[in-house]
Amino acid sequence: MDARSPDRAATFNVVALVHRLRLATGLVLFSYVLSHLLNHAMGGLSLSAMLAVQYWFVTIWQWPPMTALLFLAALIHVSLALWSIYRRRQLRMPPWEAAQLLFGLAIPPVMVDHVIGTRVAQELYGVHADYIYVLFTYATLPWRGVIQAVFLVTAWIHGCIGLNYWLRLKPWYRTGQPIALALAVLTPVLALVGFYGGLREVQFLAADPAWFERAIRTMNLPDAEGFGRLIALRDNLWVALAALLALTLAARLGRQLLERRRGLVRLNYPGGRLVTFAPGMTVLEASRCAGIPHASVCGGRGRCSTCRVRISLGGEHLPEPTAEEARVLKRVGASTNVRLACQIRPSRDLELTPLVPPTFTAGRAMRADDYHSGREAEIAVLFADLRGFTSLCEHRLPFDTVFLLNRYFAEMGRAIEDTGGHLDKFIGDGVMALFGLRDGPKWGAIGALTAAKRMHERLAQLNRDMASELSQPLRLGIGIHTGAVIVGDMGYGEATQLTAIGDVVNTASRLESLTKEHACELVISAETAHHAALALDALPRTTIMIRGRDTPMEIGIVKEVAVLDFNEDRRIKVRDRATRRAEAAAAAAAAR
Q1: What is the dihedral of CA 562, 567, 571, 572, to 10 degrees?
Q2: Assigned domain for 12 exists
Q3: Could you tell me which of 371, 369, 314, 372 has the C-alpha nearest to residue 339?
Q4: Which whole-number Å values give the CA distances from 459 to 21, 425, 478, 519, in the listed order?
């Protein structure tokens, strides 16, 4: 490992601290903006309601400890924003991140103007800065009212973007996201309606000379010299903010020039793509700078695992993962040569492969199983195939064939989904399904056996419905095997889907083909019977040799799936033919 690993680890720890500080200060500021907007919304009722709620708003936020917390949060948040701009190695970023950054930069100038016109004027000159004072100012200078309304909405959107990308990886947030979106839209709308309502009421009251004179006395406005000092203070702070931003950009440019003098780092991607950049950038930043799509649900904050890459060459020069990165990698069971692209800043050449498709979404990232990004799992795999379907369709019109297949696929798909299976794919007139992705091999095997029975029941109903159109009934052969496979999203472009690969899949397909040789409806492996607690002794069984296996494999042959009986507790047993005949006779007698 690189000798500088401890220093780099310390740097990453500082970055993690910065993220936490930004979140904490952002929550304080968001709480202030939220309470401010709710106070504005009271204007939809009356000016008196606005003033009544403002009393509690002022009592809370102008309490000295809360005032100190608010101004400290604002100072830290703005400083961290400038720090994040300085740390950026490139300005190419996702649209949501660009919007959050631009909205964030637009807030301080307007915030300075508003704070000086209210709180500072109150402290320095005793101005009574209540809603009457503020709304009267905006009635006199409408453009200031428009700027203030835009400022509040901008601050709200900035905060909502940050909250959304903080919470989007929380499992519970997925169900509450529509409600959160509705509140995010409704809150500023109600605030603007209340703001306008209060403004109209002040304009109406100001038409009364007595009210106007009394209001001016209550406001205790400063003289012309006082106004001039307030405006000068505002202008000086605006210049200071602009200077800080300019210095940040200049420092960023100077750092880039110094980094380029140290030489360049090359990243080798699959397909021969080569990215060259100055040391200091993360792999994620280098990918984005070069226009290479790279998944990153959390925006490069190290809170998800979607940007992870497998390091083929050069990994020995990387520092050890920090505690935060190691925790994320452990959660997905990553191997030692897998790292988070947003957390590693290579100083030497690397050869790597992104492991997650760039189209990976937050919805998938929030799923607890994370099978979509690749994982080894023990599941049950079911293969089914129609018997003699090719010859059946030889004299049918193409339209009739497609119609029949779609009816068949619909029935099989419902049987699989109703029993907790994942419909992997249709292969010609065959079906592949996965069971136990979330519940494990026991319930996977039980679910697959249950699905096999449901599939035959639905096929029997389909045969009855289409008896007049079929020269012979449709017949189905099913094979089920249970074991360890690799599950994940595989494919390319629109053809990418969740599927499984491994010896278990090939074996299940082989068992399905054996239904032809044994003239039966279902063939199951001993492993499937074991997980489902189904005794193979009750079934005809034999041993076979499967390509790639050194030992014979025991299988159970189910002539008719109807012999499988499912109790209320989902335990499976085999009923003999005599028992089934007796039950059928008893049912017929009862019907008579």
Answers
A1: -20
A2: no
A3: 314
A4: 61, 18, 12, 17
DSSP labels for 180-202? HHHHHHHHHHHHHHHHHHHHHHH
CA distance 370 to 84: 30
Residue 100: which H helix or E strand, with range? helix 95-115
Regarding beta strands 564-566 and 572-574, do their DSSP bridges make them parallel or antiparallel, or are they unpaired?
antiparallel
Cβ burial, residue 385 (10 Å; 0-12/13-18/19+):
buried
Query: Nearest-5° angle of CA 277, CA 280, CA 284?
Result: 70
Residue 523 lies in a domain: yes
Same domain, 303 and 173: no
In a shared domain, residues 337 and 435? no
Give me the CATH number covering residue 382: 3.30.70.1230
Tell me, yes or no, whether 251 lies in a domain: no
Instruction: Give the count of beta carbons closer than 10 Å to the beta carbon of residue 27.
Output: 15
Q: What is the dihedral of CA 275, 277, 279, 281, to 10 degrees?
A: -80
CA angle 226–232–238, rounded 5-degree value: 140
pTM for the whole thing? 0.55
Q: For the residues of 51-99, what is the DSSP string, one character each?
A: HHHHHHHHHHHTSHHHHHHHHHHHHHHHHHHHHHHHH-S-----HHHHH
Would you say the C-alpha torsion 181, 185, 188, 193 has a positive or negative sign?
negative
Contact 192, 154 (CB under 8 A): no
Q: Show which of 212, 243, 274 is a domain's final residue.
A: 243
Domain that holds residue 349: 265-364
Using CB atoms within 10 Å of the CB of residue 266, give its burial: 0 to 12 exposed, 13 to 18 middle, 19+ buried: middle
Per-residue pLDDT of the chain (592 residues; tens, 9 = 90+): 343 344 444 444 566 677 788 889 989 999 999 999 999 999 889 989 999 998 898 889 889 899 899 999 999 998 888 888 887 766 666 676 777 778 888 888 888 888 888 888 888 888 888 888 888 888 888 888 888 888 888 889 888 888 887 887 676 777 788 888 899 999 999 999 998 999 899 888 888 889 888 888 888 888 888 889 999 998 999 999 999 999 988 988 887 777 667 667 888 888 778 888 777 788 888 887 777 878 777 766 777 777 888 888 888 888 888 877 888 888 777 778 888 888 888 888 888 888 877 766 555 554 544 565 567 789 999 999 988 666 666 666 677 777 888 888 899 999 999 888 998 888 887 899 999 988 888 989 999 999 999 999 999 998 888 887 777 788 899 999 999 888 877 776 667 778 888 889 999 999 999 998 888 999 999 999 888 888 777 788 888 887 767 788 889 898 888 888 765 444 555 655 555 555 556 655 665 5
Phi and psi at 318, nearest 5°, equal -85, 150
Give me the number of domains the chain comprises: 3
The closest of 379, 306, 470, 325 to 9, measured between CA atoms, is 325
Extract the tokens encoding 455: 């599939």
Report the alpha-carbon distance of residue 191 to residue 201 in Å, rounded. Answer: 15
